[in-house]
Amino acid sequence: MLFDPNPKTRRRDLFDRERELEELEKSLESKIKLTVLLGIRRIGKTSLLNVAVKELGKPCIKIDAGIFKIEGYTMYTLYRVLANGLSRLMGRWRGLREFLSRVKGLRVAGLEVEMSLDEEKPSLIEILGRLDEWASKNKEDVLIAIDEAQNMRFLKGGYGRLDFGELIRYSMENFDNIRFLVTGSEVGVVMDFLGLENPSSPLYGRPSNIITLRRFSEDFSRNFLKEGFKEIGLHPEDRFIDKVVDTLDGVVGWLTLLGYRCYQLRRVDETLLREFVNYAEKLVEGELKKLEALSPRYIEVLKAVANGYTTWSDIKRWIEQREKRLLPSSIVSRVVIKLVKLGYLDKRYTPRPEYMIPDPVIRKVLATKSM
Ligand SMILES: Nc1ncnc2c1ncn2[C@@H]1O[C@H](COP(=O)(O)OP(=O)(O)O)[C@@H](O)[C@H]1O
Ligand SMILES: [Mg+2]
After folding, report:
1. Which ligand does the CA of 359 lie closest to?
2. Is the beta carbon of 14 within 6 A of some atom in ligand 1?
3. With a 6 A CB cut-off, is 252 part of the ligand 1 pocket?
4. Are 275 and 262 spatial neighbours (Cβ–Cβ below 8 Å)?
5. Which helix H or strand E contains 136, and what residues bound it?
6. First-residue to last-residue Cα distance in the chain
7. pLDDT tens track of the chain, all 371 residues?
8. Ligand 1: does its nearest atom lie under 6 Å from the Cβ of 8?
9. Are the folds of 17-212 and 291-368 the same?
10. Burial status of residue 47 (CB atoms within 10 A of its CB: 0-12, 13-18, 19 or more)
11. Whose CA is nearest to atom 16 of ligand 1?
């Protein structure tokens, strides 16, 4: 069902995205060992990842790095999810058992992988190495898919941070049959953290494919809604559809949630849309509060843009008026750059550089509410 609020897992529940799916699957089957899937929240990254992994049927360990946000950025959590992933993999590819049981600090009991967590804990490189050996023997690739990978950047390793970029680099250079797929909503943060564009980082200049998911166009959003409603036997007027597209723009996650709400209540009308927007705004306000806790200036800059102050100098002027003092350019720049990295702002050239807020609900909350 198109309006199913969970991330999709089958192509037939996926509206469009054919080009992106093909690109993703091609990349995962190519010699390129790192694929990066980017896009703002609720744009369909997890869904695309799920469908590609399922269709390719490759051995895959999927880690939702959102877990670290919940359970703490510890190696304990990493090892726990890794052990689960390996157990699942072994359940399907029995031959793996023999290879994994050779890893020091790792025990295979039945179909469960157990790991020591003390000094004896297994080396991640050794685990990857054994997976690679098994894969090479079986003419397979093992895919390590890490969803919302920006959360890995705070992970502590033995004596400091786990250097994930270095781990990927090592694997790329030494293991021919390991592939990585990394997604992230905090677009620039993921890019920074992988360091693909940073000359002093381990992954600089290494071959990788980057795929970016964008919002649906107005037409696509309209068709998505029409098909979705037809599927659940509801028949909204065109005016309603237009209003939804106007309000929620092409962010498929918002359109899906609204559709699901209509499905639950078996009705489509403007009151429902209003209530939904209220609910979505509350959700977004919660997210923005977290951003504000990092620095109130983030919110001020976003407010500037939401209120039509879209060039860099406009933004600076807005902030200065708000704070009633002149600010050094570097301070404003730093905040703007960070917001672009986090995906809250997009930079466009029209032809002069201008900023915009890609998520329609965030845009509205910032333009109308006093946070
Ligand atoms: N192409 C699509 N067709 C139908 N529903 C989609 C599509 N992409 C995403 N969705 C729905 O939108 C919501 C957000 O998708 P998700 O994959 O979780 O996005 P992300 O991982 O980018 O935050 C989910 O409810 C999902 O079912
Ligand atoms: Mg996701």
Report:
1. 1
2. yes
3. yes
4. no
5. helix 124-137
6. 36
7. 999 999 999 999 999 999 999 999 999 999 999 999 999 999 999 999 999 999 999 999 999 999 999 999 998 999 999 999 999 999 999 999 999 999 999 999 988 999 988 888 899 999 999 999 999 999 999 999 999 999 998 887 666 678 888 999 999 999 999 999 999 999 888 888 888 888 888 888 889 999 999 999 999 999 999 999 999 999 999 999 999 999 999 999 999 999 999 999 999 999 999 999 999 999 999 999 999 998 999 999 999 999 999 999 999 999 999 999 999 999 999 999 999 988 899 999 988 899 999 999 999 999 987 76
8. yes
9. no
10. buried
11. 44
Token output for 134 = 């098994």
Query: In this structure, what DSSP letter does residue 14 have?
Result: S
Domain spans of the chain, in order of start: 17-212, 218-286, 291-368
Establish whether residue 45 lines the binding site of ligand 1, counting it when its CB lies within 6 angstroms of any ligand atom.
yes
- With a 6 Å cutoff on the Cβ, whether 149 touches ligand 1 is no
In DSSP notation, 271-286 reads: HHHHHHHHHHHHHHHH
CATH number of 218-286: 1.10.8.60
251 lines ligand 1 (CB under 6 A): no
Residue 135, burial from CB neighbour count under 10 angstroms (0-12, 13-18, 19+): buried
Atom of ligand 1 nearest to the CA of 15: 3
Ligand 1 center from residue 15 Cα (angstroms): 9
Find where tokens 């670290």 sit: 68
Separation CA 91–CA 141 (nearest Å): 17
Class of domain 17-212: alpha beta
- Which one of 10, 20, 45, 47 would you pick to mutate in the ligand 1 pocket, going by the greatest count of ligand atoms within 8 A of its CB? 47
**Overall pTM surpassing 0.70 (yes/no):** yes
Does 314 contact ligand 1 (Cβ within 6 A)? no
What's the angle, vertex CA 183, arms to CA 163 and CA 207, rounded to 5?
70
Domain 291-368 of CATH type 3.40.50.2300: no
**Which mutation among 64, 252, 258 tests ligand 1's pocket best, with the greatest number of atoms within 8 A of CB?**
252
Distance (Å, rounded) from C-alpha 86 to C-alpha 113? 7
Q: CA 99 to CA 86: how far, in whole Å? A: 11
